[in-house]
Request: fold
Amino acid sequence: MPEKKKVWVKVFLVDFKDVRAPAGFKPSFVDQLFFSSNPPSTAPSPDGSRFHGSLHQYVHASSDFWQSLAGSSTQWIKSNLRNRDIPHYRGSMRKPSGTGSTNWGESWPVIVAEALRGAGFTSNNYSSGAALRAAIRRLPNGRQADVLVFLNMDVAGGGAKRNFGQMKNSLDIMSDDRINNNTIPGSSQRWNALWDPAWAALPDLYCTPLMSANVGGHRADGTYPGPNPTKSSLEMNSLAVLWHEMGHLAVYNQKTWLDGGKGLPDFYGHAYGPWGRMCLMGGPKASTHYPMPLSSLARWMAGWLEFRDFSREDHRIRLRPFETHNDAVRLTNGAPGSDHYLILSNRDDLSYSAKGTPPSSKGRGVLTYRLDLRGQRLRVVRGGNVVRKVASIVRRDKNYNNMLWKAGKTIDALPPARGFFEGPRTLRNARGELWWTLDSISGDGRDLMVEPKLRAMHLLEDYHRAVWHGEKPGKRTVRVRLNPDDFGGSDGHVALQDRRMTVQGRGGKALYLHPAWATNGAVRGVYPLARLGGGPMRLYAKVGMPEEAKGSDGVELVFSSGSDTYTTRLHPGTHKEYCIDFRKPGSNLTVLARAKGSATRDWAYILDGWLVPAAPRHYDFLAQASKATWRTGSGKLTFNRQDQPTGEVSLRGWMRLHTGTYHGSKVLFTHPNWANNGWIEGTYPGDQVPANGAMIRAHLGWAHGRKVTNNGVRVSVSMTVGNKTTKLSTRPSTSSTRPTSARAGARTT
Amino acid sequence: MFVEVPIPSSAWNKNAVFKFRVDTDGSAAQDWVSWTEMALTTA
Reply:
C-alpha cells in the first residue's frame, strides 16, 4: 500500500543580469505548468510550444491518484551576477588534489544561493535559523514546502537534484586556493561567501533551467564568453527533463532497501539502465514536452503498482496496455529465494520528434527486463568502480529504439549480440540459468498474448514423469516398479505429500521416499531430461528427514546424471540445501534413497528440487583449473597442495558456502599467500573465443563458518588478446565482500 | 556473488588468455574464496 501523499513544492524563479526571463513565463504560468488540476489537455506555452497537462496531473495519473503535487512559485528573483561569469561543470574539470591549480565548478549552488539571497532569506534578517528556514519553506497558504525547486535562466547548465549539504561542499571546493576561478565576479570574496549555515537543514532541492539554449564556447573554468541568446530564441526546456528531475525529488522510493533513499534513481545509470525512452527516469532519451511514462519498475518502487505474479508452469497470459492498466507480469527467474525475476509489460512503441509534437505510435510490444533485487551481478564501470546491476532490459539489439518484442517474435536462448556490452539478450538470469523462454507473442487489439514456457523441471510436481522402482539388494537385486502415490508396502513407496511430517519444526509439501523394506533397500526414480533441451544442468534441492523418523539409522540420498554424482546422508531432523552442477548430464536424472542398513523408519524427504538448464560452457575454467599457471605473492603454486603459507589452489568436491548451501560437484578453493596484501592469480592457456560471442560467468562465495575479519577481498577477471589486456570484472574490497554475518540483511548468493 | 560479463566483440574468434585473481587488500586471514562456477559460456 503506497503512502497517500500530497507533496508541497515551493518553486523559486531566478534569472541573471545577462539572461532575463522572457515575457510570458510568469509565475502564474509556472504554477499552471506544475500544479494545475485543470489545464487544457493541450496548451501552448508562452514560446508557442504545445504540451499536455501539468506535472501534478502526470504524477497523479501515474500513481493511480495516490500522489499529488501542490505549491506555488515566487516572483522572478533577479541575480546581479551574469550567467556567463558563473562556472558551469564540464567533464574535463578535476577537483583539487596535491599542489597544482585546477578548474572545477558547478552553477547550481550559485543559482540556489542567489535565489535565497535575492529574496532576503539570510540569517541576518531572521531571529533564528529555524525562523529563516520556516520563511524559506513557507507557501502563500501558510503551509511548509516539503521540497524546494529552483527554476532558472541558466542557459548553459543542466538539472540537478541535490541537498544543501552538497551545496555547501560544492561551494567550498569552488573556493579552494587551487581553483583558478574561485572568487565571485566583481568581488574579492570566494564563492563560499554565498553560503549561509542556517540553510544546511533545509529539505532537498532540485535546480534546473526553465529555458534551454545551445550556448557553447565554454572556457576551461566553466564560464563562457557570450553573447547570450536573445529572449526570442529561448525555448522552454523539455518537460520530460523537468518531470524527470521531479521524479528524483518528489516521487518517494518506498523500496529504500533497494536503493537506499527517497526519490527515484536514474534509470540510465549502470545499476538500472539503460532504459532510454521506456521510462521517464531513463534519460530521458527524447527532448519532448510529452514526457514518457514512468515504467513499471519506477511505479513499483514508488508503491503505486503491484506486479501480477505467475506460478512456475507454462502460461498463456493476456498483457493489457501498461499505460491504461498499470499491468506488469512477474515471473520468478531463479532458484526459490534468489530474488531474480523477469518482468513483462505491454508497452506502446512511441516515437518522438519535435518537442511540442505528440509522439506517434509504432505499434505495441512486450518490454522485458530482468530484476535482480539484491544486485548480485556486479559490473565494472568507467573509472574502475563497481556497481550492483539491479535491472537489465532484454533488448533486441543495441539500438535504443529496439527494446520492444513485437507480435511474431520469440525470446529464446540467443547468443550475445555484437556490440552488446551492457544487457542480456536472452531470458537467462545473471547465473546463466534458463528458467523461461517466451515462445509466442501475438496481438489481440491493444492487448498482447504471451506464452512463457517453463524450461525447468520440478522434482516434486514432475515426479510422476519419473520411473520409480523399489530395490531389494541381494545376490540378485530385486527391482519392483512403484506407482506414484501408491502404497507399495515392503517394496517401498513414493508419494507427493501436501502435508509432511515436520522437519526442523517446519511442515509443507514434500516428495516422500521410502526404500524397500530390506537391509540396504532402496527406492530409485529416473527422471527423463529430454524436454529440458540438453546441455549442462543445475539442481537446487532441499532435502530432509522428519524428526519423527527417530530410530532410523539414516538414509543415503544420491543425485546422479552423466558422470556427476552427489551423495548425502540424512538422519532424523536433517535439513540441507544443495546446488549441484551437472556439467555433462546424461539423458536422465536419477534420484536414489538407500537405507543404511535397516530400512526401518527411513523416511526421506525431497522438500524442494528444481533442475534448470545452465549456460553452455565453451571453456570450463573451474574443471580445467589444473591446466592454469597459479601464482601468489610467494611464487608459483603446486595445484592441489593444501594448507600452505605460500597460498593454495585446490579443486574440492563439495563445499558448504556462507549461505548455508552445499555446492558441488566441483568447487575451486583459492587462498592468497598468508601475508598482508597477499594475492593469488591463475593464468589459463590461450583459448579461442567463440565467433558468435561469449560471456564470462562466475559464482563465488566464502566457506561456511569463515570467521569475519576486518577486510574482504578483491576479485578480478581479465582477458588478454594480443598485447591488449582488458579488465572484465572486479569485486571491491568493501563490506559487501564479507561473509553474510558481517552485515545483517546483506545476503549474497 | 556473480560475474556475468559479455566478451567484447573485438575479441570474438580470437585467441584470448584469461586471468582470475584474488587480492587480500590488507590482512590475508581467512581470505579463502570458493568458486563454484568459472566458465566461458556461449549464452
User: Anything to note?
Assistant: The CA atoms of residues 629 and 683 of chain A lie 5 Å apart. Chain A has four domains: 5-250, 256-455, 458-613, 625-746.
